[in-house]
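Reopening this ticket.

The earlier resolution said the output was attached, but the attachment link was broken on my side. Pasting everything inline this time so it's all in one place.
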Amino acid sequence: MDNGVGFQHKGLANGGWAEIPFNLQMGNIGSEVSRSLKWKEKGNEKRMNASIDRALELFDLSMAFNKNSAKLKEVCRAREEFCDYFFGGNYFQTDPTQMQRYYDQFVTMSIR
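Inline output:
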């Protein structure tokens, strides 16, 4: 992608993310989404913003490494909903519990 400069997940930005199956990518993104939701609920803006930054980085890596895949649309839509919830006034009326449930399915798929 680039040499990992400016990324929190440098090894993943250098191509490691492309080696991870899509379900695990989405499960990892979901972990950061979950942290973002948790810190928002607890009112800890600093930790929430750090989790949001990590989630956005993982979304962007998934978009970059899946750009020629049918999965690109799903990643883009999930990122759009995430951003709308945290920054856009929740236009899509996303319920945090439903958002978490969406990502939980990828963890379930990965352990089967």
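Reporter confirms the inline version is readable. Confidence is low (pLDDT under 50) at residues 1-5. The helical segments are 10-13, 22-42, 45-65, 72-87, 96-110.
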